[in-house]
Amino acid sequence: MKKIAVFTSGGDSPGMNACIRAITRTAIYHGVEVVGIYRGYEGMIDGDFTNLASHDVSNIIQKGGTILKSARSARFMTKEGRAIAYNQLKQAGIEGVVAIGGNGTFTGAKVFMEEFDIPFVGVPGTIDNDLAGTDITLGYDTAINTAMEAIDKIKDTAHAHNRLFFVEVMGRDVGFIAVATGIATGAEAVLIPETKTDIAALAKALRKNLRNKKTSSIIVVAEGDDEGGALLIAKKVQALFDGYETRTTILGHVQRGGNPSCADRVLASRLGLAAVEELLKGKGGVMVGQIHRDIVPTSFSTAIKHENKMDTGLLNIVEILS
Fold first, then answer.
1. pLDDT digit string (tens) for 263-310?
2. Domain range summary for the chain, segments of one domain joined by +
3. Rounded CA separation 4/98 (Å)
4. Is the four-CA dihedral 276, 281, 282, 288 of positive or negative sign?
5. What whole-number distance in Å separates Cα of residue 322 and Cα of residue 307?
6. 0.90 exceeded by the pTM?
7. What are the φ and ψ backbone dihedral angles of 111, each rounded to 5 degrees?
8. Largest CB tally within 10 Å, which of 73, 122, 252, 306?
9. Three-class SS state of 168
10. Is the pLDDT confidence value at 233 over 70?
């Protein structure tokens, strides 16, 4: 293999740049040319390519976002669009591709490989931590630390004004961010998509807190909670009693940005190196992930179909320690 490509796709996550750096320099170390594809699958269809040299990835290991940009592509979902992408790759002499992204990215790579002869290897870049085949996804550690720092600051003002704060974090389908930050910040409750939210029970617990002279509380809500998110839940709880002055904060996309943590930089470096080495071994159709500190490949089919399951027993920690 003489030339490979790398792209980022879907939602950005801290550590993507560190991974691009690792992929580029590992390939160069092995005498392989590297092409960066801008804007994910959309850029692949447009032939929006750039050659990457070692100096092109200097001083990016500490930066959030992605220098290759990211986009979603409706055109790639069609067979005609994928055929155009294949022709662009072939014309550029690209023999293998590293895809950094999540579920949608790997679904696209899997379908592409079923139709064409260019192998793809994936790196799990998503803050949601919802892919099987890895204990932790790239960007998750930074995201939970960002959310934790924000909630710590909110807790200060909640205590100063005797307020009940509902803080919404990312997590449309899974509650990993919510549970981790809820435990780490001493939240009174954590509401996630994996469990049904009982508004009456939540209000009862908050009344108990008031009787125990707890004058402020933090409730962490994953955006995909079945009651519709923090704003709606706050209104429903407020309607049941007037014990607290209620406020809502939605952290939103701040969780995706910022300099990646040390853990994410190390993980990005390990996974980027491993992804290139999988391609050089002639492998494809796999995602490289970290399981019990080891870097192992997992098929796209497994990574896509079997989401990393939340241990809802962790909510007991929140309840007991609150």
1. 999 999 999 999 999 999 999 999 999 999 999 999 999 998 766 777
2. 3-139+260-305, 143-256
3. 8
4. negative
5. 29
6. yes
7. -65, -40
8. 122
9. strand
10. yes
